[in-house]
Amino acid sequence: MLDDLKNNLHFTTWHMVHQLPRFFINGWQSIQLKRTLDLTYRNVYFYQELWDNLKINIKQIKVPTDIYILPIINKNTLRELDISKIVNRSYSGRRTWHQTSGSTHEPFKFLRGSLKMPWNDRRYFYSANYRFLLWSGVGFKKIISNLKVAQIHTAPHPTQNYLFIHTENLRVSPQKTITELKMYGADILEGLASVLVELARIAESLPQKERPRFSYVVSFGEVLTSVERKYIEDIFKCELYNKYAMEELGVIGLECKQHNGFHINEESRIVNVVDDEGNELKPGNSGRIVITYFYNDILPFIRYDTGDYGMIYPGVCPCGLPTYKITVNGRHGYFIIVNKKRVHYMELDVVLRQFAGKIAKYQIVQSDNSEPNILILPTKDFSPSDLKDLQIKFREILGFALKIEVAKDLLYNQSGKAKIIINKPE
Fold first, then answer.
1. Which CATH topology does 335-424 take?
2. How confident is the model at residue 368 (pLDDT cuts 50, 70, 90)?
3. Half-sphere exposure of 324 (CA within 13 A, CB side)
4. Coil, helix or strand for 393?
5. 199-203, 212-216, 333-337: segment of lowest average pLDDT
6. Is the pLDDT at 26 greater than 90, yes or no?
7. Is-same-fold flag (2-120+262-325; 335-424)?
8. In what order do the strands lie in the sheet with 216-219?
């Protein structure tokens, strides 16, 4: 009985933190940070040796802004170490093995387990993943009891009222997938941005009445472009919410109705943006995204370099939520070489987004010794004149022309993701 009361109190507080005043969020993070650092220093050899060698006294870290004295680590550091060096040797709770998608060429295998978030308490899952519904006025009890979710992915998550469709099934039996989705009647459809585009292209070929309908679509796991967002929303007549998540760090943030960045789930982590030397960057400046996660007690991630680049949103979001908001610009490698100059894909997106509704998705193919090539998946509204207009716009706005090809299918990497930039050797 006492344990149940403690668990309920922890969840209720955890669940509400993101909506409370900034000083409460900072106070909660200070408590969770102290717990995480104490537990880690006492029980994880790697962190203990690392901090001792640098003469860092974790007792000096009292508030979130003190965290900058800790060194930054990454998955390559952890991957090279023996598992006994990086796990909590005193942990006795439930543990499960997981691995990242391998979008950076090699999957990273790790253990997951928490003493504070019971694995079978699905309230944490629903709160972290679907709190954008709370912000729209939907009650949490209704979310847990009635929400029907369909997900197209490579592995299911254990959730009530849930339909799982393997990505391969969509490609092998597209009509069966459409039928399943229509019969299930999901409130929310989830998937990688490229998978959602695939499904939308199938649905686009059908009459309106034969297409599945969803109130919301949630994209995760890949960079979502404005071109893809408009196409998916137009086909399914829904509102699309983007989610920033990583296998090893959970759901980092979700969009609000402004749809211009992710409100960080700050009850579970501290998110910093730093320059290439690891120095703090103020809001409004773009740099490396580094995260400290509070709730993987068996294998802590403290000052963990995500490999992503982004920016903390300056000021308070118009939606009124007090949590920090972050925009994510993708991986460090999201640059191409044009006329011997580095160009970020967002500069190309400025042009391509003007053709939203006519382009379903685009990919940029960069070979070792040649100019990049843009592949576009057209919608039914795309015409040959649009191709000419697109080439003209590139010259007008960016000052250079690019080779553009109309493609029939996407290019996927080994992890099954259709990345925006595909690097191909000659």
1. GMP Synthetase; Chain A, domain 3 (3.30.300)
2. low
3. 22
4. helix
5. 333-337
6. yes
7. no
8. 162-166, 149-153, 188-191, 216-219, 239-246, 250-254, 262-264, 325-331, 304-312, 286-293, 269-274
Asked whether the predicted pLDDT for residue 103 surpasses 70, the reply is: no
Q: Which residue has the higher pLDDT, 349 or 11?
A: 11
Identify the DSSP state of 67: G
> What predicted TM-score, i.e. pTM, was given to this entire model?
0.92
**Of 304, 246, 245, nearest in space to 272 by CA:** 304
How many beta carbons lie within 10 A of that of residue 226, not counting itself? 14
Contact (CB, 8 A) for 376 and 384: no
Averaged pLDDT of the chain: 91
In the 8-state DSSP scheme, what is residue 283? T
CATH match for 2-120+262-325 among 3.65.10.10, 3.30.365.10, 3.40.50.12780, 1.10.287.110: 3.40.50.12780
Is 344 in contact with 326 (CB distance < 8 Å)? no
* Model confidence at 331: pLDDT above 90: no
CA distance 312 to 303: 16
Boundaries of every domain in the chain: 2-120+262-325, 335-424
Q: Using CA atoms, how far apart are residues 200 and 216, in angstroms rounded to an integer?
A: 14
| Residue partners of 221: CB distance under 8 A and separation at least 6 | 101, 192, 193, 245, 417
Assess whether pLDDT exceeds 60 at residue 152.
yes
The DSSP secondary structure of 134-188, one letter per residue, reads: HHTT--HHHHHHH--EEEEESS----SSEEEEEHHHHHH-HHHHHHHHHHHT-SE
